[in-house]
Amino acid sequence: MKSLIKLKYIVFLLIVVFAVSCSRADEDDDVLSQEDISNIILNVKDDATGIVRTYNYTVNSTANPEIILTDGKTYTVNAVFLNGNEDETESIKEAKDEHFILFDFQNSSINLERMDDESSTRSDGNKVGLITKWTVAKAKDGANSQLVLTVIHDPVSVSEVQNGSEFGSIIGGETDAMATYSISN
Fold first, then answer.
1. Which of 37, 59, 96, 162 has the fewest CB atoms found within 10 Å of its own CB?
2. Spatial distance between the Cα atoms of 95 and 91, rounded to a whole number of angstroms
3. Distance CA 67, CA 54 (A)
4. What is the secondary structure of 64-113 as a DSSP string?
5. Which helix (H) or strand (E) holds 148?
6. Residue 8 gets which letter from DSSP?
7. Could you tell me if 147 and 141 are in contact, meaning their C-beta atoms sit under 8 angstroms apart?
8. Residues 6+ apart with CB under 8 A from 13
9. 96 burial via Cβ count (<10 Å: 0-12, 13-18, 19+)
10. pLDDT digits (tens, 9 = 90+) for 32-46
């Protein structure tokens, strides 16, 4: 009987140890998972006029904000990531070597240049993409012009080079968040 009681305690302890070892609490504090980003905001400043327009994408929303761009103009764009009312952008900067943003301008002819400062430039020299400059040749270059913005966590390697319509490429990693914006003029 005593060995049966001991066995119950041993099984209970094993279950507790297993449950604790599998919890997300063991993950690094700088892991920014998709459920930690509720909104992706793009502050788009017309470089000629200084006018800033804000486009707020709510994660998992069916409505895509419509970014209005003018052919021939240049814009400076700041990306902000929120979890409710909390600004998570600083978390991305603090873990800059573990993040990278991909910009895919589908059916648009837009050139993108990453303008990140030291606070969001990775140790490998690649810029995360929190601040970018967009030069618009043709905002709508076909049906369904859009920007698909993807935040990647923990890529093995990254490149800022344009690949087709996408600015940046990665090997490995996982998606922290993704946003789709319609583009019009």
1. 162
2. 6
3. 9
4. PPEEE--TT-EEEEEEEEEETTEE-HHHHHHTGGGEEEEEEEET-EEEEE
5. strand 146-153
6. H
7. no
8. none
9. buried
10. 444 589 999 999 999
